[in-house]
Amino acid sequence: MNNLFDPRWVRILETTRTLFLRYGYTHTSMKAIADTAHVSKATLYAYWSTKQALFNSLILWESLHTFDDWLQRVESDPKGGTIGHLLAQGMAAVSANAVLHVLYSRDTQTLGDLLRERGTQLPTQRYGMGLDFIKALQDASLIRADLPANHINHILTAISVGLVNVGELYNPAHFPAFDALASSLGEMIQCALEPADHKNQRENASLMLSYLTEQRQGTLEALLSVSQPVEGAF
């Protein structure tokens, strides 16, 4: 995947990720990013005119990696063709990504000014995408259509947010391994949402992987559209 992008652009994003997780958004300056990535500030600003624009690209970059992780988890899961395991593996992939984990947990210490600048923009976007996903699954008869899509989305979002934030309230030492938890969660969601006239697992897997691949492609195209420097900057 990296060969689709300018290596310098990728290096800057990876550097931003490291500094962001180490020092937080507020204390990660454009100068620090440029110095650590071994590029000039002029080069950095040729790609991103503001720090927020750079972090918007970072979020897309991490989302793309999360889609890849999600697809790999689903493909390696013997029950990945079931809606329960598909959704559970998606939650596991988000939780495993350090940047998205920080964003969805609204870690104020790490997010700093980014939380003020973006507000609820990202969670709101994700909530809307989740609802669209549930509606698409219902239209394809992959989950029950007798339950309101917005109710299903809200409950699944609450579970996902809870998985990310539960460590703030309880001692993680007592938590089960997340991979094992994802399997159990998948079974629970499957029991709750599987339609009475469900398709065979192979057909389910094909439809679900096709949907995830489509969403990944949209994220990739969004990244490619912002990965080029301003013309004439160099």
Query: Regarding quaternary structure, how should these chains be classified?
Result: single chain
Average residue pLDDT: 83
Question: Quick one: how many beta strands?
Answer: 0
The number of distinct helices, counting runs of at least 4 residues, comes to: 12
Catalogue the unreliable spans.
none
* C-alpha end-to-end distance: 25 Å
Give the total of domains: 1
Order of helices and strands: HHHHHHHHHHHH
Strand share of the residues? under 5%
Which range best describes the helical content: under 10%, 10-25%, 25-40%, 40-55%, 55-70% or over 70%? Answer: over 70%
Shape: globular
Structural class from helices and strands?
mainly alpha
Largest sheet: none
Q: Provide the gyration radius in Å.
A: 19 Å
Task: From the structure above, extract its key features.
12 helices, mainly alpha, 0% strand, 234 residues, globular
Question: Which helices and strands, and how do they pair?
Answer:
Layout lengths: L6 H17 L6 H8 L3 H7 L3 H26 L6 H14 L1 H8 L2 H4 L1 H6 L2 H19 L9 H17 L12 H16 L7 H25 L9
Helix pairs in contact: 1-2, 1-4, 4-5, 4-12, 5-11, 9-10
How would you describe the overall organization of this protein?
The protein is mainly α. The chain has one domain (62-225). The protein is built from twelve helices and no strands. The chain has helices spanning 7-23, 30-37, 41-47, 51-76, 83-96, 98-105, 108-111, 113-118, 121-139, 149-165, 178-193, 201-225. Helix 1 (7-23) packs across helix 4 (51-76) and helix 9 (121-139) packs across helix 10 (149-165). The longest helix has 26 residues, at 51-76. The two termini are 25 Å apart. The mean pLDDT is 83.
